[in-house]
C-alpha cells in the first residue's frame, strides 16, 4: 500500500543540509601534512535535475553542502588545510604541500515506485584530483550511496526521505575517502616523499 501511495508522487526539490555540525569530523590520526582544497563553482553549485515519466520533476541541490562536507573531512585527515581559489594559486601560499580538488561526475537516484520498495536511494560519483606545484599527480573515483526509508519520515511529503538519502550518500563519500585515501598509489608516493626525513 505504501508503494502504491508513493507511485503517484509528482516530484520534489531538496537540498543536502549545509550545517557543518551535520558532517562529523573523522576520528583519525591526522596526516602530518598541510593541503589546499579547491571547491570550484561547478562543485558548490552542483544540481541534479531529472524528470521521471509519470512521476514529475525532481531536483537535488548537492553543491551548497560540499564546503561543509569537505572542510570537516579534511579537518580530521590533515594537520592543516585551507581552501584555495585554484590549483595554481596554491603555489603562492607557504606551507601547502599539495592541493586536492573534488568534483561530482554523476548523481543518480531512485524512488520507491521504481524499485517497489520503501526506499529512496541516491548514488554519487566523485572524482578526486591531487596536484603538486600545479602538476597533476593522480586522480581516482569515489562511489557513494545513501538510502532512506519513507516510513521513517511520514507520507505527507517525499522530500524528507529523498533529502535524507542524499545526505547519507554524502556522508558515505566522506567515509570512503577517509578509508581509501592512503591506499591510492599516487597518494602513497606523495605521502612517502613529503614525510621522508630531510637529507643531511
Give structural attributes.
200 residues; three-stranded mixed sheet; elongated; disordered N terminus
Q: Main β-sheet: number of strands, strand sense, barrel status?
A: 5 strands, mixed
pLDDT average, as an integer?
Answer: 90
Widest β-sheet, arrangement of strands: 5-2-6-7-8
Give the beta-strand count.
8
Give me the number of helical elements.
6
End-to-end separation: 74 Å
Structural write-up:
The chain has 200 residues and is an alpha/beta fold. It is built from 6 helices and 8 strands. It has a 5-stranded mixed beta sheet with strand order 5-2-6-7-8. Strands 1-4-3 form a 3-stranded mixed beta sheet, covered by helices on one side. A hairpin with a 2-residue loop joins β7 (119-132) and β8 (135-149). The longest helix has 22 residues, at 159-180. The protein is elongated. The N and C termini lie far apart (74 Å).
Concise summary:
With 200 residues, the protein is α/β, with parallel strands linked by helices. It contains six helices and eight strands, in the order αββαββαββαββαα.
Element layout with pairings:
Blueprint: H1 2-6, E1 12-15, E2 31-38, H2 41-44, E3 47-52, E4 56-61, H3 66-77, E5 78-84, E6 98-110, H4 112-115, E7 119-132, E8 135-149, H5 159-180, H6 185-195
Helix pairs in contact: 3-5
Amino acid at each position: 500500500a505504501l508503494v502504491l501511495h508513493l507511485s503517484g508522487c509528482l516530484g520534489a526539490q531538496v537540498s543536502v543540509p549545509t550545517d557543518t555540525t551535520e558532517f562529523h569530523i573523522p576520528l583519525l590520526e591526522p596526516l602530518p601534512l598541510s593541503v589546499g582544497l579547491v571547491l570550484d563553482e561547478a562543485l558548490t553549485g552542483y544540481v541534479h535535475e531529472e524528470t521521471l515519466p509519470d512521476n514529475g520533476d525532481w531536483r537535488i541541490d548537492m553543491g551548497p553542502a560540499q564546503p561543509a562536507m569537505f572542510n570537516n573531512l579534511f579537518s580530521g585527515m590533515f594537520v592543516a588545510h585551507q581552501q584555495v581559489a585554484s590549483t595554481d594559486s596554491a603555489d603562492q601560499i607557504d606551507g601547502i604541500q599539495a592541493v586536492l580538488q573534488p568534483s561530482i561526475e554523476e548523481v543518480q537516484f531512485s524512488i520507491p515506485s521504481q524499485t517497489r520498495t520503501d526506499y529512496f536511494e541516491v548514488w554519487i560519483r566523485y572524482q578526486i584530483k591531487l596536484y603538486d606545484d600545479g602538476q597533476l599527480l593522480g586522480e581516482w573515483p569515489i562511489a557513494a550511496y545513501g538510502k532512506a526509508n519513507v516510513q521513517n519520515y511520514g507520507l505527507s511529503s517525499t522530500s524528507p526521505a529523498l533529502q535524507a538519502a542524499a545526505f547519507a550518500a554524502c556522508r558515505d563519500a566522506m567515509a570512503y575517502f577517509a578509508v581509501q585515501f592512503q591506499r591510492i598509489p599516487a597518494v602513497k608516493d606523495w605521502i612517502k616523499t613529503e614525510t621522508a626525513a630531510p637529507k643531511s
